[in-house]
Amino acid sequence: MLLSHRHRFLFVHIYKTAGISISTALIPFAATERQLRLDRRFNRLGLSFLYPRVIRHGSSVRDWVSNGMNNVFERLTFLDQHPQPVRDPHATASEIISTIGRETFDSCYSFGIVRNPWDWQVSLYRFALETVIGLPRTAAYVRGLGPERRTYARLTSFDDYIRWRCTEDVHLQKEFLFSADGRQLVTFIGKYERVEQDFREICGAIGIEASLPRLNESSTHTPYQDYYTPETTELVRRAFASDIELFGYEFD
């Protein structure tokens, strides 16, 4: 998540929906001037505590150090005007409200980005391969990813992953942006499929100018449809039916 006290916006970050790119573009408008000045000093050494860096096999020492610094900064939520006042970077809107209060939340232009559930699952699978399974065992445990590594290690294919995801670990995107009784909590819901257009609309609404970088993309560009069989297509359709209907998605 990202909160700007200066520009009164709040980003609810659903994982693997261009969130790293959006956060990177908006951090200069959310962090305090003091935080930005300090980060620029670290930038001279190739480091950063403000900007998130994803760790993969082959990541540099500077990436590892910056990732650690960012993790520490995320936990310093007691700091005045912290741009991420909730420790979980993927906190739901309801969780954010319970931390910062409804008045503060409603005073901001709030938004999140959703993604086609079939495409979303392919992206999550590729991300797990590259950032969990792809890491050396010791590195994964150092990052606190031991349980995730054990889970993904027993899934030998994408089909296995989908069967597990759709029966044991279903998380809906609507849970990030709507209340338990179905009320939309955020001001605006954009779509990953038109993220550049929607990001321009977001910037216009909050009165800033920013460019959207392309970060944290999976290494493969195979169409998501190619991953699926009729069985796994239907598993996702049933498990994520609420998201599919609410956000108007189809398999093709």
Blueprint (SSEs and pairs):
Elements: E1 2-4, E2 9-12, H1 19-30, H2 33-43, H3 61-74, H4 93-100, H5 102-106, E3 109-114, H6 117-133, H7 137-142, H8 146-153, H9 158-168, H10 174-177, E4 188-191, H11 195-206, H12 230-239, H13 241-247
Parallel strand pairs: 2-3, 3-4
Antiparallel strand pairs: 1-2
Helix pairs in contact: 6-8, 9-12
How would you characterize this protein structure?
There is one protein chain. The chain is built from 13 helices and 4 strands. It is α/β, with parallel strands linked by helices and 252 residues long. It has one domain: 3-Layer(aba) Sandwich (Rossmann fold). It has a 4-stranded mixed beta sheet. A hairpin with a 4-residue loop joins strand 1 and strand 2. The longest helix is centred in the middle third of the chain and has 17 residues. It is globular. The two termini are 30 Å apart. The model has no long low-confidence stretch (mean pLDDT 91).
